[in-house]
Amino acid sequence: MGIADFLSKRKDEKAKKNLEGGIDFLEANKNKPNIVCLDSGLQYEVLQEGEGAHPTAQSSVTCHYIGTTINGTVFDSSILRGQPATFPLNRVISGWTEGVQLMSPGSKFRFYIPSHLAYGDRQVGSHIEPNSTLIFEIELISFQ
């Protein structure tokens, strides 16, 4: 077995382990109080309800957020950077696109995003492994 085969096998094993761990996590999570489960597999809880209209997938949104893996590792945070992020909602992972459309300005939600609505079997950076289930706490500040 060459090094490429070894690395490929290791990636596949990690991806399978992450997928199974994410499924188990979401299965247990859906039974917690205040968790809403959507047909897509996205789960969320409302931490603070805002007021007003909701963005569409074509909106540009300004948010504060923190993203973690299910083991609690922070991989990205506008809060830690001290500056909200603005981006087109249709240019992010599909879990964000679907979830943020449920929010209105001033809302804060926690989203539990299965791997198929996140990065799938891709490794992203050093903390998001293939088939990772992700957790985002998002505050919608505004949208256009």
Describe the fold and architecture.
- The protein is an alpha+beta fold and 144 residues long.
- Helix content is 26%, strand content 29%.
- The protein is built from three helices and seven strands; from the N terminus they run αββββαβαββ.
- Strands 1, 2, 3, 4, 5, 6 and 7 form a seven-stranded antiparallel sheet that branches.
Oligomer: single chain
The largest sheet is: 7 strands, antiparallel
Tell me the Rg in angstroms.
16 Å
Which runs of at least 5 residues are low in confidence (pLDDT < 50)?
A: none
The first-to-last residue Cα distance is 54 Å
**Total strand count, please?**
7
Portion in helices: 25-40%
Question: What proportion of the residues form beta strands (DSSP E)?
Answer: 25-35%
Query: SSE order, as H and E?
Result: HEEEEHEHEE
So what's the overall shape? globular
Give the overall pLDDT as a whole number.
95
Number of helices: 3
Précis, in short:
It is built from three helices and seven strands. The protein is an alpha+beta fold.
Q: What attributes characterize this protein structure?
A:
seven-stranded antiparallel β-sheet, 3 helices, 144 residues, 29% strand, alpha+beta
Write the layout of secondary structure elements.
Layout: H1 3-29, E1 36-37, E2 43-48, E3 60-69, E4 74-77, H2 78-81, E5 85-88, H3 94-100, E6 108-113, E7 134-143
Antiparallel strand pairs: 1-2, 2-6, 3-4, 3-5, 3-7, 6-7
